[in-house]
Amino acid sequence: MTTVFVTVGTTRFDELIEAVTSREAVQALLSRGYKQLVLQVGRGSLLPGPDSCPGMRVHSFRFKDSIAADIRRADLVISHAGAGSCLETLGAGRPLLVVVNDRLMDNHQLELARQLHADSHLLYCTCSTLTETLKTMDLSVLEPFSPGQPENFATFMDQALGIH
Questions:
Q1: 3-class DSSP state for residue 132?
Q2: Residue ranges of the Glycosyl transferase family 28 C-terminal domain (predicted)?
Q3: Can you tell me whether residue 135 is helix, strand or coil?
Q4: Per DSSP, which regions of the chain are E strands?
Q5: 35 lies in which domain range?
């Protein structure tokens, strides 16, 4: 089954869950052949049920000890822009669409997403542009992220956050 895994990490990002389960976003996913949504909703107030998205199989949960298996099983990962979630998904070699929470103050997530996008490792958008991005995205342009080089990632994070 063609699966989309959505993760908000340990945060509360109801806007992302609302956006990805909207009628328009679900239609965009269905038109691309996706059949299942697995939603990790974190501390959010939304926990969509199995029948919440007509035509799409939906499974929701708050937390697990590890989401590594969910990421590996996914044909597409849609994630908040947390560094841990991005690195885990890219390290697993899964296509990644990052949804930046543009309501955060001092938005380092946007800097991280922009740089990883500039390096062709992921696509990114905001909640307000998610449906359009799902309709027009071209996952074939993504380049693999070379795992196993934590010093390179640490240097990148220092630069993205203005530490160096």
A1: helix
A2: 3-146
A3: helix
A4: 3-7, 36-40, 57-61, 76-79, 96-100, 123-126
A5: 3-160
CATH of the domain at 98: 3.40.50.2000
Task: Return the sign of the alpha-carbon dihedral for residues 6, 9, 10, 16.
Answer: negative
Average pLDDT over residues 138-157: 78
DSSP string, 101-126: -TTSSS-HHHHHHHHHHHTTS-EEEE
Count of structural domains, the chain: 1
Q: What is the pLDDT of residues 4-55, one digit of tens each?
A: 999 999 889 999 999 999 999 999 999 999 999 999 999 999 999 999 999 9
Q: How much of the chain is in helix, strand and coil states, percent to nearest 5?
A: 40, 15, 45
